[in-house]
Design goal:
The complex is a heterotrimer. By secondary structure, chain B is mainly α. Helix content of chain B is 72%, strand content 3%. Chain B has one domain. A two-stranded antiparallel sheet of chain B has the order 1-2. Chain B is globular, with a radius of gyration of 19 Å. The chains are: A mainly alpha, B mainly alpha, C alpha/beta.
């Protein structure tokens, strides 16, 4: 649609990757400090904090998955929680059936991935916002399905599965062990995604996101890349489901409820779409903010979250992760304005 | 046979509600290029408004009319002050904004009226009448007819009035329409207003059956979206037919296919959708869209 | 009497200055051409007039300052702009496109009469009156776009490259039709054209733009005679 109004298009797309350049040294420094903190933290902090941080890790991975399909490929998905739930259920079932944990882990990734593949096959061909429109159905169908398949899922009661107690040889407490498990798997996932998005695959995704016709002209099939991205997002969702079980050790149909999907979406936007740091910030948002708003004003909690999401979209479309970039741009333009000659334009 | 007819009529009634919401979505999409995921939420708010007006003593029919008028205004204001910002830009950002609106509106409803189930009276009596050996519910028939009449009215508006022509022109090419002097901004507001009004009617008609809660239309939205995909965004008739088909089929499946039952019948439209999309990616009625690069 | 006057008009898209200083005027009932190479700022000049881009400087129409007005107000004052690419409404029929052109008018009977007049003038359009505009050929769409602008009964018709994308014979037909309209209605015209030969068929004078500046102006005879014009735009 073309513009008829005067204002320039300030709408930095939610699905825009902030300006990619070689990461400056101070980001590496901060990163190293953070890593150090992360590794040492659980040894000194108390149980609730460790559990909180572990949950952040779980949902940071979930948001990362959402980012792959939304932030990097530009397709709105409202069903990410479904893949988390699916992964959690697979894990719970596997533990219950006493399968080797590695097998369970692999299945928790593969099965949701297959589901994602099937959904994407149909939806990606429609283009436009079809993936959004179809994914909304996933949690909505998922909940009654989970209740119905009670042999596999334990029905409305859900399944409990304890398997993440700290082994003897580690000398760690349960919460610390869980924390490290989440940290390790999340870190590996993040590194893999980071590499993926910085490479040829990521560049292709960016082109598909910007302009599908241009992508086609370059021999990049938007359909194929959307399907791939969605499948990867689903697999990552499965990983987050496994991690969910590590920390929470219980899953039920409520795990995949629709409002969680919206919360994940909001977390991604607030954290920063299309960004690694943004996914982590999103994890923090998901774990802390709904609880916080619930404590402040239980009846207002949905209202507040809606307002936060809208405000972020209006004021800071790139999310919290885009703040350094925005500051840099502001400083740069201020410098430029002082040397350039006055322009006639308004 | 009797049960079959009952199921079909009930299915047509629910299908009409899906159709109304689906048409509202198409209307908004045609005029402003967005998919409004808050369309169902707005309809719920309208239903609560009907509840409030009725609670103030207005007869139900007037309460509904008042709610439609207020909803029209709300829809127009939302377009102007919330969505306008996102209209020229990335459509996915706009969708996320509508999701934000949905959360906000649901929150407002929950805050003002709580999350408990409220009861909204129906325009039609709870009785049934006999038809070919079936007990057909007045409510189902009434819902179907009211929505049908309104949809025909909208169709007439678009085809035969100056306002309708202007709305279609703006949807087709807003920049060019502005050059002919059409007040594009105001017309976009009217488009959203009409969609909101349509949603208000759908909400008021379905609330008695579903009971009024903030999340009442979440499932209806999903059905409406399925109808829009099946029918094709460019074809209002296709959306309506698809919606009716979904309503009827899910009812039939719920009863005649025991495994599906009433809780899983929501999967029916999506299985249908899935099959159709694999065979015919542009939907049942849609034309392959020509993308203006 | 001067109908339209541009004084020292500037325009920029973000940081890019597209118009540095453009001045021109169109007399009431006159026809002026804007010539220049691609990127000289011809389309931007027209957009400045119809209010679809923000500008500095001064634009006066019929004595009124319209520099800051948006497209809807400018149209209401009597300027009809046929944009680059014609701006047809593809999913509306030919008749509906014409009706949209008459949106601001209140005289329904006269509107109908005008439609009949235009259909007589353009028998192609008459044949396709019920088809969607997207089904028309390039030349027919151009005639439709011009007709639609004409339906507004404007005082000034602003045309952006009417010959763009058309075969030479079709372009000639379009220009002949525009000339007829002009003669029969006496409206003023401002025509952007890269093909100076075509432009000179209907304009009395022209302005040449180069990188956002109006560098040369004069009557058609004067300009036709000048070497630079001949070499750059008339093929030697």
């Amino acid at each position: 649609m073309s513009q008829t109004s005067f204002s320039p298009d300030l709408t930095a797309a939610v699905t825009t990757v902030p300006f990619q350049r070689r990461t400056p040294w101070w980001v590496w420094a901060i990163g190293a400090a953070v890593v150090l903190l992360l590794v040492v933290a659980p040894l000194v902090m108390d149980i609730p904090t460790n559990q909180m941080l572990a949950r952040v890790g779980v949902f940071a991975v979930a948001v990362l998955g959402l980012n792959v399909i939304m932030g990097y490929t530009g397709q709105v998905s409202l069903g990410q929680i479904f893949f988390l739930g699916f992964g959690a259920y697979v894990t719970a079932y596997g533990v219950q059936q006493e399968w080797p944990i590695l097998l369970t882990f692999v299945l928790a990734i593969v099965l949701p991935g297959v589901a994602g593949l099937i959904v994407a096959f149909a939806a990606a061909r429609l283009g436009g916002l079809a993936i959004a429109m179809v994914t909304i159905a996933l949690p909505i169908i998922g909940v009654p399905l989970a209740k119905r398949l009670s042999d596999l899922t334990g029905g409305s009661q859900g399944i409990s599965a304890r398997f993440s107690d700290a082994p003897e040889w580690s000398g760690l407490a349960d919460d610390q062990w869980q924390y490290y498990l989440v940290l390790l798997i999340a870190a590996i996932t993040f590194v893999l995604v980071y590499n993926l998005t910085r490479g040829k695959f990521g560049r292709a995704l960016a082109i598909v996101r910007e302009n599908e016709n241009v992508a086609k002209a370059m021999g990049i099939s938007p359909y194929r890349y959307k399907v791939m991205a969605f499948t990867i997002a689903a697999m990552i969702g499965g990983v987050s489901g496994f991690l969910y079980m590590v920390v929470v050790q219980y899953t039920s149909p409520e795990t995949l409820a629709f409002h969680h999907s919206i919360n994940l979406l909001a977390s991604m936007v607030v954290g920063g779409a299309g960004s690694i740091a943004g996914s982590i910030l999103g994890g923090f948002y998901y774990v802390f903010v709904p609880n916080l708003t619930n404590e402040i004003a239980p009846t207002l909690t949905a209202l507040i979250q809606g307002i936060i999401l809208l405000v972020v979209l209006f004021v800071l479309p790139g999310g919290l992760a885009s703040i350094p970039h925005r500051i840099r741009r502001m400083l740069r333009s201020r410098r430029a304005d002082t040397d350039s000659s006055p322009s006639h334009s308004k | 046979m009797g049960e079959f007819i009952q199921l079909v009529v009930d299915g047509l009634a629910m299908g009409s509600v899906y159709a109304a919401l689906g048409l509202a979505i198409v209307l908004v999409n045609q005029s402003t290029g967005l998919i409004n995921f808050a369309q169902g939420g707005m309809a719920v708010l309208s239903a609560y408004l009907t509840y409030a007006f009725a609670g103030m003593g207005l007869p139900l029919i007037l309460a509904i009319v008042a709610s439609v008028i207020v909803s029209f205004a709300l829809g127009a204001l939302i377009e102007r002050f919330v969505m306008r910002r996102f209209e020229g830009g990335d459509p996915d950002t706009a969708v996320v904004a509508t999701v934000g609106m949905l959360t906000l509106i649901t929150g407002v409803c929950g805050w003002i009226w709580s999350y408990n189930n409220l009861h909204l009276a129906s325009l039609f009596p709870a009785a049934s009448f006999g038809l070919l050996g079936a007990a057909v519910s007045w409510r189902s028939l009434g819902t179907f007819l009211v929505i049908l009449v309104i949809m025909l009215g909208l169709q007439a508006l678009f085809r035969y009035t100056k306002l309708g022509l202007a709305l279609r022109a703006v949807a087709d090419n807003p920049a060019s329409s502005a050059l002919s002097g059409l007040p594009v901004g105001r017309l976009l507001m009217v488009g959203w207003g009409l969609a909101a009004g349509l949603g208000a009617v759908a909400g008021a008609l379905v609330a008695p059956r579903l009971t009024l809660t903030p999340g009442m239309m979440d499932t209806v939205l999903v059905y409406a979206l399925a109808a829009v995909i099946l029918g094709g965004m460019m074809s209002p008739l296709g959306v309506v037919v698809a919606a009716w088909a979904i309503g009827v089929l899910e009812n039939l499946a719920a009863v005649y296919v025991p495994w599906i039952g009433h809780d899983l019948k929501i999967a029916v439209p999506f299985v249908l959708l899935f099959i159709v999309l694999l065979l015919r990616p542009q939907g049942l009625f849609g034309r392959k869209t020509v993308v203006r690069v | 009497m001067t109908l339209l006057e541009l004084e020292d008009v500037t325009a920029a898209y973000g940081r890019v200055q597209v118009l540095e200083s453009v001045s021109l005027s169109v007399p009431d009932g006159g026809a002026v051409g804007i010539l220049g190479a691609n990127g000289a700022g011809k389309t931007t000049t027209l957009r400045a007039i119809s209010g679809t881009v923000r500008v500095g400087g001064r634009i006066t129409f019929d004595g009124k300052d319209i520099t800051r007005l948006g497209p809807e107000k400018v149209a209401a004052l009597g300027i009809a702009h046929v944009p680059e690419g014609r701006g047809t409404l593809p999913n509306l029929t030919v008749r509906e496109n014409l009706m949209v052109g008459a949106y601001l008018r209140r005289d329904a009977a006269q509107v109908r009469a005008d439609i009949d007049y235009l259909l007589e003038l353009f028998p192609n359009l008459k044949e396709r009156i019920g088809s969607n505009a997207s089904a028309l050929s390039g030349g027919e769409q151009q005639m439709l776009a011009v007709s639609r602008a004409f339906m507004a009964k404007p005082r000034l018709l602003v045309l952006d490259e009417p010959s763009l994308g058309l075969a030479p014979s079709t372009a000639k037909n379009v220009y002949d039709a525009i000339q007829r309209l002009r003669i029969e209605s006496g409206i003023a015209m401002l025509v952007v054209e890269q093909n100076a030969n075509l432009a000179f068929r209907i304009v009395d004078s022209a302005v040449v733009l180069e990188t956002g500046r109006s560098v040369l102006s004069g009557s058609s005879e004067e300009l036709r005679g000048r070497d630079e014009i001949r070499k750059a735009y008339l093929g030697g």
